[in-house]
Specification:
The complex is a heterodimer of chains A (426) and B (312). Chain A contains 13 helices and 18 strands. Chain A has helices at residues 74-83, 102-115, 138-144, 159-172, 183-186, 195-200, 207-224, 236-247, 258-262, 284-296, 311-314, 331-340, 347-362; strands at residues 3-12, 17-26, 29-34, 43-46, 51-54, 56-61, 86-91, 119-122, 148-150, 175-178, 191-192, 204-205, 228-230, 252-256, 301-302, 377-387, 406-416, 419-423. In chain A, the strands form four sheets. In chain A, strands 1, 2, 3, 4, 5, 16, 17 and 18 form an eight-stranded mixed β-sheet that branches. In chain A, strands 9-10-13-14-15 form a five-stranded parallel β-sheet. In chain A, strands 6-7-8 form a three-stranded parallel β-sheet. Chain B has helices at 16-30, 58-69, 86-99, 114-121, 138-151, 170-181, 210-214, 238-245, 249-252, 275-278, 285-304; strands at residues 47-52, 73-78, 104-109, 126-132, 159-163, 185-189, 205-207, 219-222, 260-262. In chain B, strand 5, helix 6 (170-181) and strand 6 form a beta-alpha-beta unit. The longest helix of chain B has 20 residues, at 285-304. The relative contact order of chain B is 0.17. The model of chain B has no long low-confidence stretch (mean pLDDT 91). The chains are: A alpha/beta (426), B alpha/beta (312).
């Protein structure tokens, strides 16, 4: 099928383009960009009110399959991604069993192929069973299709193993993704340590728990030359440290979740467990620093840390409830409302955050609309107003703090390899 | 004027009028406990469930006696916190109890916010917070203030020192909220490892030196060291803790001559308070327990029967 996206504003930082152009898709690739005369046999979509961008990539999601298919499956996660405007997602290895070997990697890819929607790129474990003791067979996993490595959620505590992982990763040029959390300092806390946690009587997590690991990672990256990627950065100091490390030429990148630039710890009222996640929501001053990091380029990408949990796991007291929220179906609208409409970043910068940069970090061969490129395309309608309704989510889970929020700017169409896999219905 | 909320979840939600109402009602109920027949029919036909997920002697029996003296039925449910899916069972237990139509559930739980969670699921039952984790223990603070007012004219302008494990103490939080609301000058004191972040934001003074806290104090409130909530090392030894923060006759000299000593119990004798001090004349520790019954009678009465005329 030949597809013509007519009259949209094409925003592609990889070519430094931001102008009104037609875009022709043929045989799953970008065939032409420019003023294109339509043919009758083509499928033509009027996107004149929309932004046309290289496909968005969510480099941090939990799909729960294999093991916890009651929370999410690769299929339901793919559907949520498509509806959220994502053409590619990278799934974390903390499944049951853990993705620490090529068999699990192949299983995930096989299931993703069967789902046949978005591109699913597995992220492999750094250490076997995420135990932080022995390196997993990273080479085998990379051969099978893993695009990065992480012990997400169970950060590698042993500095020597982290150093070895960063060294070893250089063979394959994959990023080592670190969930920065010093377990001793986190002290089994449940929210940011602040006056708010004091008043709620909930054990706090010190910012230092994240910051110490960020500092460690920059130092280890410098001595090894391995690429480190800080997952879900959340504190002012962490961002400052990454900014400084980048100036020194250290191979460090970082991502932020939408909830860490839209919510803060004072939003936790009546012990609502939908506001519980790791890292925790931080203080308003941290959120301010996040916005600065987003606008000045310190923060490389937006990733959701989509973490599905069943109702039962959230219908508990705050300290007992599971950590994390789902995010793929709200990320683009939250970013549009909070970053574009509030003039924190430009549209071109937003596309960098969602596509160009995650592609650069994971080396997926995407993130561009150059002629000949794989036609993964995200089309956004900046005028579309939505009211977040968890009941309408494609995800199997409903753990989302944004229910009922009114947002402007939403995915209009998601195209993978030239095929429309999602179209907004109004 | 009744209470605005159907539940009593924390001091934070009460305004000064409501606090006055509870204190005045408590005073009028105190006399009942001194009669030879200690029972009135005010809440006859009403029922209280004590749902306790943490061990308790004083608070649980205090709620039970309070209910019985007002003619209400009360039953106790003690659940060990060792079960794996505590929160899940909390909601299920709440729904089940609710189906038996109790009028009040007094809940104690190791997790902050457990009473708030229960309140969301129990639409027709009043929930009373009998202590939730490190968050609040509102009836304790009310009985403490009632006890102070037995000895001092007014809370306003009073100097109150709260000493000990502030971080893990719901008693400290509820008392600070209540005392500050009522105009006291509160100074909290403990090792920095046991003072939670931004505690000054309550409008209190924070010090690490007990002398500073006690100087000029009208009321000295000692807290229990909460070993069950302390997950790591906060002080080197009990001996050193007592030397720095334990209250004895010697240190008591720093306080005003007229100062009273309070403790929410249970006392760790020799850790936070010298045994001879607990029984000295200025100790009001057992008056606190007596007032506990009156305050809980008042709370049960106001949550349930405020619209009806009191039949004393």
């Amino acid at each position: 099928m030949t597809l013509l996206l007519q009259g949209g504003t094409v925003v592609d930082p990889s070519q430094k383009i931001e102008k009104r152009l037609d875009l022709l898709v043929e045989k799953g690739r970008v065939a032409a960009l420019g003023k294109i005369k339509p043919k009758k046999s083509w499928k033509i979509v009027d996107v004149s009110k929309c932004v046309v961008a290289p496909g968005f990539i969510d480099m941090h999601v939990h799909l729960r399959e294999p093991g916890r298919e009651d929370k999410e499956t690769i299929l339901s996660g793919s559907q949520a991604a498509a509806a959220g405007g994502f053409t590619s997602i990278a799934c974390m290895p903390n499944t049951e069993p853990v993705n620490d070997n090529e068999a699990i990697t192949r299983f995930i890819l096989e299931r993703a192929g069967r789902a046949g929607l978005v591109n699913v790129f597995p992220v492999g474990a750094i250490t076997k069973r995420l135990e932080g003791k022995e390196l997993a067979e990273i080479g085998e996993m990379v051969k099978a299709g893993v695009v990065a490595i992480t012990d997400d959620g169970n950060p590698v505590e042993n500095n020597q193993i982290m150093r070895r992982a960063l060294e070893y990763s250089k063979i394959f040029d994959v990023a080592v993704v670190d969930h920065c959390e010093d377990r001793d300092l986190a002290a089994a806390g449940h929210m940011n340590e602040s006056g708010v946690s004091t008043r709620l009587g909930v054990r706090g997590i010190s910012r230092a728990a994240e910051e110490l690991d960020v500092v460690r990672d920059t130092i280890l990256s410098r001595i090894t030359g391995g690429r480190v990627h800080i997952a879900h950065i959340s504190t002012q100091e962490s961002v400052a440290w990454v900014r400084q490390a980048k100036k020194q030429g250290i191979a460090i990148t970082c991502e932020i979740t939408p909830h860490h630039f839209t919510l803060n710890d004072t939003d936790i009222t009546n012990y609502d467990t939908h506001f519980k996640m790791y890292p925790p929501l931080r203080a308003p001053s941290d959120v301010k620093a996040m916005l600065k990091g987003l606008s000045d380029g310190t923060i490389d990408c937006i990733a959701t840390d989509h973490a599905p949990h069943t109702r039962l796991e959230k219908e508990m007291t705050f300290e007992e409830a599971a950590n994390g929220i789902i995010g793929m179906e709200t990320a683009v609208s939250l970013a549009w409302e909070f970053l574009i409409r509030r003039k924190i970043v430009s549209v071109s910068r937003l596309v960098e955050l969602f596509s160009t940069n995650p592609n650069r970090i994971l080396k997926l061969g995407r993130g561009t609309l150059k002629e000949g490129a794989i036609a993964d395309i995200t089309v956004i309608d900046p005028d579309c107003e939505i009211i977040v309704d968890v009941k309408k989510f494609r995800s199997k889970s409903r753990n989302c703090p944004f229910h009922g929020w009114r947002l402007q700017g939403a995915p209009f169409m998601t195209i993978v390899r030239g095929r429309i896999i999602f179209r907004h219905e109004n | 004027m009744p209470l605005r909320d159907r539940h009593l979840l924390g001091i934070e939600d009460l305004d000064l009028d409501e606090i006055e109402l509870i204190l005045n009602t408590s005073r009028s109920f105190k006399e009942i406990s001194t009669r030879s027949i200690k029972k009135v029919p005010t809440l006859r036909g009403k029922s209280l469930i004590n749902l306790f997920y943490e061990p308790s002697t004083r608070t649980r029996s205090s709620f039970e006696i309070a209910a019985k003296r007002l003619g209400a039925d009360s039953i106790n449910i003690n659940i060990s916190t060792s079960s794996v899916s505590k929160g899940e069972s909390l909601i299920d237990t709440g729904k089940n109890l609710q189906s038996m139509n109790p009028d009040i559930i007094a809940i104690r739980h190791s997790a902050a916010g457990a009473p708030h969670l229960l309140a969301q699921y129990c639409k027709s039952t009043s929930i009373v917070n009998a202590g939730d984790g490190m968050h609040e223990h509102p009836t304790q603070a009310l009985l403490d203030v009632l006890t102070i007012l037995d000895h001092k004219k007014s809370i306003e302008g009073l100097h109150v020192a709260i000493v000990g494990d502030i971080a893990h103490s719901r008693v400290a939080r509820s008392n600070v909220l209540l005392l500050v609301k009522m105009g006291a000058h509160v100074c909290v004191c403990g090792p920095p490892t046991l003072i939670p972040m931004e505690f000054e934001s309550y409008g209190v003074k924070v010090t690490y030196h007990i002398k500073e806290a006690l100087q000029g104090a009208d009321v000295v409130m000692m807290l229990r060291t909460q070993k069950e909530r302390q997950r790591d090392v906060f002080y080197p030894s009990v001996k050193e803790y007592f030397a720095l923060y334990g209250l004895n006759m010697e240190k008591m000299k720093w306080a005003k001559r007229s100062a009273i000593v309070m403790h929410p119990g249970p006392i760790n004798r020799g850790i936070e308070i010298d045994p001879e001090l607990a029984e000295a004349g200025f100790s009001v520790i057992f008056e606190q327990v007596t007032n506990g019954v009156a305050v809980r009678m008042a709370v049960l009465y106001l949550l349930l029967g405020a619209s009806e005329e009191a039949d004393l």
